[in-house]
Fold:
Amino acid sequence: MKRLTTADIMLELRGGASKARGKRKGGKTATLHSTSKKTATGKKKVGAAKKAEEDKSAISDTMQKYKSILPLTRVYITLIGVVTLLGLLLGEELTQTLLALDPIRTIYGLEMWRPFTAACFLGPPSIGWLMSAYYLFEYGSSLERAYGTAQHLIFLLGQVLLLSIFSVLFGQPFFANSVITAMLHVLSRSMPNQKVKWLIFTVPYWTLPLGLMASD
Structure:
């Protein structure tokens, strides 16, 4: 049997302790690394996927509601949004110059878009703008549902023609609100007893022009 000296025993103890510390340190580092990796890849990826799915669902619902609007009313509302955006980009002065109804430029300059932009401009975005757009959606949808898209198109083109003439006579550059009033007048005459919601009240159509006149 080999006899160990004091120096050999000390070297054995130091070597064993170093190996043990190395094993413990290595195991701990590996554990921390795996936990961090799991947190970084697992939770973040799940959260990002959930957020992307929610965003996609909201966009899909919005597009579905937009497509469910009756076709001619959807086109009119889209034109109002486009003309409003143009008004914001151009500013007040250029909006009057390029979009307002001008009989000289319309007839002699062949700027045939002016009657249509005059019928689609409700002013800059505001509470009044939102209310007018809502009324246009409600009344336009009711007319198109009741009489069909073709009849509603004839009605709108007739209103653009008549209101262009009267706007020139009275010096009005835009007449989108007058189109909404014309829709309301037709509804109040064609279906006077039909109930409709106005603000927080449910009233028949024949009373709605009087209520709007009083509120104005």
Residues 39 and 45 are 9 Å apart (CA to CA). The chain is about 80% helix and 5% strand.
